[in-house]
Amino acid sequence: MPRVVPDQRSKFENEEFFRKLSRECEAFVATGTNLSLQFFPANLHGDQRQVPTREYVDFERETGKVHLKAPMILNGVCVIWRGWIDLQRLDGMGFLEYDDERAQHEDALAQAAFEEARRRTRDFEDRDRSHREDLEPMEVIQHHLRTAKTRVSAAFW
């Protein structure tokens, strides 16, 4: 199953969910959306987590605030959450934007997975067809043997 939908940009631009969250707002929670942001989670191979760069977590941009950037796939669309949190009040602002670069990468991965699945299906069908063709002469021989047995049996009755 692909991680992304076929036309990510269209979904991002046309669905009310994304339109609402693409406008800077004080709290995503007010829209019924709760995001758990993870920066550079450990990968499947067990490598250690990376320390996020200032591009993703910036404490120096503005005194008393941390500015955040978190890329993710949300509802099948590649997006980036951008925002800031006040370190004293623990409130802030944020919004989603479409991540065109990652979307193209994920689309390429999805296309490659689709092509691989199609290749495997074609290989399976070819093997199945070849197997059936190999069995057809055997079935013809078995049919003739059954017919011959029937004739021999009928001759003895």
Give a short overview.
The chain is α+β, with helices and mostly antiparallel strands and 157 residues long. It has helices spanning 8-14, 16-21, 100-156, and strands spanning 57-58, 65-74, 77-86, 92-98.
CATH architecture of one domain: Beta Barrel
Strand order of the largest sheet: 1-2-3-4
Main β-sheet description: 4 strands, antiparallel
* SSE ordering: HHEEEEH
Oligomeric state as shown = single chain
Can you tell me the CATH superfamily of one domain? Core binding factor, beta subunit
Overall mean pLDDT stands at 82
Number of helices: 3
Give the percentage of residues in beta strands.
Answer: 15-25%
CATH top-level class of one domain:
Mainly Beta
Computed Rg: 30 Å
Task: Give a count of the beta strands, DSSP E runs of length 2 or more.
Answer: 4
Kindly report the CATH topology of one domain: Polyomavirus Enhancer Binding Protein 2, Chain: A
